[in-house]
Amino acid sequence: MIALIQRVQHASVSVDHSVIGEIGAGLLILLGVEKGDEEKHAERLAERVLGYRIFSDEQGKMNLSVKQAGGSVLVVSQFTLAADTQKGMRPSFSGSAEPVKAERLYHYFSDCCRKQEVITANGRFAADMQVALVNDGPVTFWLQV
C-alpha cells in the first residue's frame, strides 16, 4: 500500500464540477492499493501517515504530526501509484489490487484515520476526479508498507 502525502494549506476534490471533499490545513493523501495488501497494511500505513512529523513546531522545525498540528486529511484513491514504470513507454498496472478489494481497503484506510480522531474527507473511488490543492512548502513524501 502506497501513500503519497502532501502537506497542504487546503485541498479539495471534485466530481462532475461538484466538490465532494475538502479540507483546510492538513494532508492530501493519494492512496494506491497493491496486490497482496490487507487490512493490516492499511492500519500500519494510516498509523505512519498520521504520525509522520512534517508540520512545523514553535521553533519552525518539522516536528509535529498532522494530529498534533490539528490538521485534517483528504484521502483520494489513485491506482496509478502502483504502476510498474521500469520498462517501456506505457505503465503496467499488473501490480494494482483488483478494484473490489482496492475500494474496500481504500475505505478501510479512511476509517482507520477517523478512528484516530482525525477529520477525514474522501474522494470517490474510481471516479474521474479533479484535485485542487495548495501544497505547503512544498512538502511531499512517499510512504509505503
Count the beta strands. Answer: 8
Distance between the termini: 6 Å
Helix-strand category: alpha/beta
CATH superfamily: D-tyrosyl-tRNA(Tyr) deacylase
Largest sheet report: 6 strands, mixed
Task: Using the coordinates above, name the CATH class.
Answer: Alpha Beta
Mean pLDDT: 97
Count of structural domains = 1
Give a short summary of the structure.
The chain is an alpha/beta fold and 145 residues long. It is built from 3 helices and 8 strands. Helix 1 crosses helix 3.
Keywords for this entry:
about 140 residues, alpha/beta, D-tyrosyl-trna(Tyr) Deacylase, Chain: A, six-stranded mixed beta sheet, two-stranded antiparallel sheet, globular
Report on the architecture of this protein.
The protein is α/β, with parallel strands linked by helices. It is 23% helix and 39% strand. The chain has three helices and eight strands; from the N terminus they run βββαββαβαββ. A hairpin with a 5-residue loop joins β4 and β5. The model has no long low-confidence stretch (mean pLDDT 97).
